[in-house]
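Explain the record.
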Amino acid sequence: MIGKVRRNLELKKKDKFFLKELKSQIELISKTQSILTLFPENTEHSWLGVKRAGISLFPESWIELPHYYSECLLSKESLSELGAFIAELGFNQLILNGYTPYYGIISDAIKKVNPKLKVKAIYHGFLAELAGNDFQQKVFQLMIEDHISGKLDSIGFVKKGMALTVNRLYGFNSKEIILKNPENRNGTPIDDRLHLGAFVNNSFRKNLHNMAAGALLCDDSILHVSNDKELGYLNQNQRIEAHGFLEHNQFIELLGKMTINLHITLAESAVGQVCSESISQGVPCISAYTSAFFDYDQELRERLIVDGFEDSWHIYQKIQEVLNDRDYLSKRCLEYSAYLNTLATERMEAFLAV
């Protein structure tokens, strides 16, 4: 009992500290920006993709909310106070990245103080991940209900086709969002050997084992991964380098040092940020047609998408094809990255105009 009381007191102290820091950071942003974007703080890979996407879309006006996996570290009272505070600062729009149940508390407080401030959400998920996931189903339903009730003024979807689907089902006017690619760092290769990157987690849908096997079929290749703990059975430990969890800038630099990157997943939320960050560095990234990433360039779609994405031999053959024309494809990737950034700007302008 005493331990529980102490823990509650510690959380209250942290809650007040978090709220004070957030207010200070948000007030500073309000002096130069008309749009504020929020997203939960990542815990290792949890929320990491949403965070990186949010920063890429709003590099000058983002705030991380104290968060641990799926738990917000702010009390309901502090969330409500934060919303009221945001409402008084003169922002035109608040963009919520991802969606969590407590976003509604912030939005509700904003609308009570300043109904003219538009509150919008950008949903980074996809329908396939809702299977067997009661929590995510409830979150998606809550987001829809919050839009219907007026807590949300609009919703943007990163997964291609989601906006069209939701608009047809619910009568909304949602918009499609395209994420921006980072600038080219002009990195140099590690050395003259064949370096293949497969930077995904170990979940089933990320298809790491097929990518690893396909990469190791290539003569004298070095496979680079985030975590190699499940790959010992391939008996190629001397050719596998595990890099662990890297800061974002370090990760982009590593992608730029590869000969080819692989992101051949069985299901994808939007584009697969490894794809977008790889081509931005001029490194071809072989993908699967589980996202629409290469839909805006027919040539790259044909040359960088592997049909047999669950077949390591197909992956090996596609790697060989790309290697045969790697320099040309590198140039095309840089051109495509620039085009996608132009398209991303246009889509974001349409979303903000709603």
Residues 2-30 form the longest helix (29 residues). Confidence is low (pLDDT under 50) at residues 1-9. The radius of gyration is 22 Å.
